[in-house]
Amino acid sequence: MGDTAGGFEVVLSDLESTSATFATESLKVSDAVPGDSPQPADTGNGLCDSALADALQAARLTTTQLAAVIDAHSKKLHTAYQNYSATEETNTLLCQKLVALS
């Protein structure tokens, strides 16, 4: 069942499913970053070693940040699901009371 808002139909099951998918994908992205740093590069060139270490650190930070953003979107979708679901229940009860009055 869905609610129409601003020309868009909100399908509760889609919100719930998408929230779960985002949560799963957030964990996958987070798990892609190893817990401990890989062995430092030893190219024989200190400048190159330092650049590689910096690049790996930047990639780790970016991936960790991406996982957090995906998780935040999962939580927002779940909150939207809860809000729409509660509104739908309230509207259903109101309709039932109005029908009972007639």
What is the helix/strand order?
EEHH
**Overall mean pLDDT:** 89
How many beta strands in the DSSP annotation?
Answer: 2
Q: Give the CA-CA distance, first to last residue.
A: 25 Å
Q: What gyration radius follows from the Cα positions, in whole Å?
A: 23 Å
Proportion of strand residues: 5-15%
Helix/sheet category:
mainly alpha
Continuous helix count? 2
Order of strands across the widest beta sheet? 1-2
Q: Low-confidence stretches at least 5 residues in length (pLDDT < 50)?
A: none
Outline: rod-shaped
Count of separate structural domains = 1
Largest sheet: 2 strands, antiparallel
Q: Percentage of helical residues?
A: over 70%
Q: How would you characterize this protein structure?
A:
There is one protein chain. By secondary structure, this protein is mainly alpha-helical. It has one domain (2-34, 46-101). It is built from two helices and two strands; from the N terminus they run E-E-H-H. The chain has a two-stranded antiparallel ribbon.
